[in-house]
Amino acid sequence: MELPHGITGKLAEPIEKILFTEQEIQERVKALGEQLTRDYQGKDLLVVCVLKGSLYFTADLIRHINMPLSLDFISVSSYGDATHTSGIARITKDLDEDIEDRHVVITEDILDTGLTLDYLVKLLQLRNPREIKICTLLDKPSKRITGIRADYSGFEIPNLFVVGYGLDYKHKYRHLPFICTFRDEFIPKD
Ligand code: 5GP
Question: Rounded to the nearest whole angstrom, what is the distance from the C-alpha of residue 152 to the centroid of ligand 1?
Fold first, then answer.
C-alpha cells in the first residue's frame, strides 16, 4: 500500500488501509465549515471541542467558519476500554465559558454508541444554552444504542475500528494525517 511521504517504519507497520486521505478529509471539513458559516450567521456561536479525539477536526473546521466564534474544550472519560464505552462518564476537564443562552456546537471525532454524547448533551442542557447541536467527523450509525444523532456529519462509516486524524490506538497514532484501519492483529477484540 502506498503511504504518504514520512509515514514509515513503526508508524506505518499496523496500517491496513487508508479509508479517507488527508485531502478527502480537508475537503469535507471545509464543506462542513462553510455549512456552519451559513447556519450560524449573526448568532453567538460557541464551539465545544471534545478532547482529545476531535482536536485536529475542530482546529481545521473552525478555520473554515467565516464569522466570529468562541472555542472551548471539554474532556469526558468513560469507564470502559477502546472498543466498549460503559456509558458511565465523568468530566475530567470542564468548560471555561458560560453557555447560558448561547448557540453551542459540540465537535466530536466519532459518534459510535452515542453514550458519551448522550451524557454530555444532558449535562450541558442543565446550563440553559439557547441550543446544542452536534457536529461529528465520523458517524457509525450501526453501533448506536441511544437516540443521539448528528446534526452535521463528515463521513458515515460501517462498524470498523479506525485510527488517525485525532483517533487513537492505545493513546498513540492520533497524529496520522489520514483515517485508516489497522491490520487484524492490532485491532482491539470485542
Ligand atoms: P460512544 O460513546 O459514541 O460509543 O464513543 C465515542 C468515543 O469512542 C469516541 O469519541 C472515540 O474516542 C471512541 N471510539 C469509537 N469508535 C472508535 C474507533 O473506531 N476508533 C477509535 N480510535 N476510537 C473510537
Answer: 17
